[in-house]
Amino acid sequence: MRIASVIVDVPAKQTDKTFDYLIPEQWSDIIQPGMRVIVPFGPRNVQGFVTGIKTESEFVKLREIIEPMDLEPVLNKELLALGDWLTEQTLCFKIFAYQVMLPAALKAKYEKKVILASGVQPADLPATLQSFFEQNDRMDWTQALHHGLVSLIQREAANGRLEVVYEVKERVKKKRVKMVRSLANIHELEQEMEKLPANAEKQKLVLNYYLQHDQPIELKQLTEELKVSSATFKTLIEKGLLKTYEVEVYRNPFENKSFERTSPLPLTQAQQGAIEPILNSIETNQHEVFLLYGVTGSGKTEVYLQAIQEVIEKGKEAIVLVPEISLTPQMVNRFKGRFGDLVAVLHSGLSAGEKYDEWRKIQRKEVKVAVGARSAIFAPFENIGIIIIDEEHETSYKQEDMPRYHAKDVAIERAKKYNCPVILGSATPSLESFARAQKNVYHLLSLPTRMNNQALPSVEIIDMREELRAGNRSMFSRKLFELLKDRLEKGEQSVLFLNKRGHSSFVMCRDCGYVVNCPNCDISLTYHRAGGIMKCHYCGFESPVPRICPECTSEYIRYFGTGTQKVEEELGKILPEARVIRMDVDTTGRKGAHERLLSDFQDGKADVLLGTQMIAKGLDFPNITLVGVLSADTMLHLPDFRSSEKTFQLLTQVSGRAGRHQLPGEVIIQTYSPEHYSIILAGTQDYNLFYQQEMMVRKMHHYPPFYYLSIITVTHEQLLAAVSATEKIAGYVRSQLSNQAVVLGPAASPIPRINNRYRYQCLIKYKREPNLTKTLKTILDQHQRESKDGLLVSIDVNPFILM
Ligand code: ADP
Ligand code: ZN
Ligand code: ZN
302: CA distance to ligand 1 center in Å? Predict the structure, then answer.
């Protein structure tokens, strides 16, 4: 008798444990740990993960597994164990830990099919399958089940003759366009022309078009070409002469590019010094964490590439994480250029189906290098030789939903298993990592200078209060304007950076100061010019902009603040001849838009690139000689203990965009807080001094890296219920921890209400509390059971965002 332990896809406290199921005879050779199965659970059938196989169970009456979903495990042994670790570390349900490791396609709706492996002919298969595949190119999984072919298929799959694939039902809407065609023949069209009154010029234009072309055409294109309105078409459609219909158009933004192959560059002395300890760790199979600290352009990526080369030569695999935002073609090309087809790329620009294809290349060991954003840390390699995290300070490495993991912790956990090195790279390491390097927990490697000793750009800080005093009300200081004009004359390029976070354009009454807030969340609505609407970024609420102020009925209610659109408008007024490319969520929403805008800029199709944080990274164009930061301090005032660090990192990063090549660069930082150390030190690009200053602040206020944090957030529709529950929880935490721990709260969360739920927090600061995990689990258990009272409790261990 074979029995499978299964974690079922029912995320709740009571079901967060394995259930035993009998493996029916017919599947007994097939089902293995790490496979997904369908099992009966209560009255329903649910998905589950097999975590182990055994021969005995303490339960007497076992139900049977209905069917396997996979022919090979989707989670290997190591990943199954990693799931246990994730569950323990982040206090999440086991099912979430497993699901987060798989590509979306394996979670989405999909159809499972059996296909011939490439190069295999139907004649190569056993007779039963042969006749089927002679007539069809794919078999539905349900068909395979129905005809009892699964074990046969599994054997053929093991021999490499068949494959099981998932065809994802795209959740992304297909793109459709409206076409218009003529229903009349030439004769009828001519007759109609004659009947039309002389003043019906527009209709004549359209009819004349169809007299000359009998092909359908996109409606939009024709209205633009003939400069006619949709009303004209409406009339002709009503007369039965034309007809509109929709067709699907094929999108292919990532056409197959060929990559220029590169070979390893002779390393500089500094690079040599940095790579040697890494190679040594690879050579001796010793796990070690390296912090590669080097300014932008100091040659870190070349060090990554050569370390990976070594790993590949040893027959092992590499995972490279880069922030989603810098997963640009430029970055990807560097890896593809060096390792060609051995590279799989996982990023959010791919459709679910494309991502799944990349994941399968990894699973089938067709590639050796996985490059991707946060979730690529779960790449299903089985012989990892190195894990690299570029821009290790980036907040996007922390997942904000369950499981709330940090990719760095996962990287170190996996690397320990494989006895391999982890490289954390950054020009502005997180305080935590640099502190660990200072204490020799991490091995510090430095690349102190840029390649060829190029000077860092010169940075000037402009006090915007002075500008105001001098009568300049524009968002451009006099100096920045002067330099922009200068670059325009010289034909050099500029980048203007607007930090949008915490400073988006909201709608305010100029008379009484009333700000339009979301009715569900305590936060202002963001103005979107496209469509003239306001949106809530937390709950999605939308509303048109009011014409008069609801408070004082003034008509002077309008959007306020400096969105990128507004900057673009103002730039158009003061430098009308400048060609501007704007990059923000509005202009880069469509697939491939990001790349297109960047390559236009690279090709010199614009003088100024204007954007939000998304342009802060990865940009490396020779002709950029000026970087302007319009408002450096917008992030400084966020209620977050990392706001100084983030400001420093961002300003340093942005400054690094100028003068990366022959032409020297200049940077202008505009600010209302020119005396703040994070701005002054970003100006002098002095990481070490910033580190020391900020460490003092952190020590004083008991923040990381001196203390660990955990945050408990309690939400309820009623304010009092949220407060009193948080109060009880805080009291309980205090009673369980040592008096070295600091327990703060209940306090209203920085965003005190989201989606009509009040939010209260309890913040725990601690150094070493062996009791903490147990305490937090008890709290979660308790509230799972009591969740009928409408209370939601979530816990973030080592939070990155305190909202
Ligand atoms: P980082 O990753 O630190 O920003 P890169 O690795 O991108 O730095 O290096 C900056 C530039 O210097 C790149 O154009 C790269 O091709 C070049 N470079 C790096 N290492 C070398 C080397 N050893 N010899 C010559 N050029 C190099
Ligand atoms: Zn008003
Ligand atoms: Zn809202």
Answer: 6
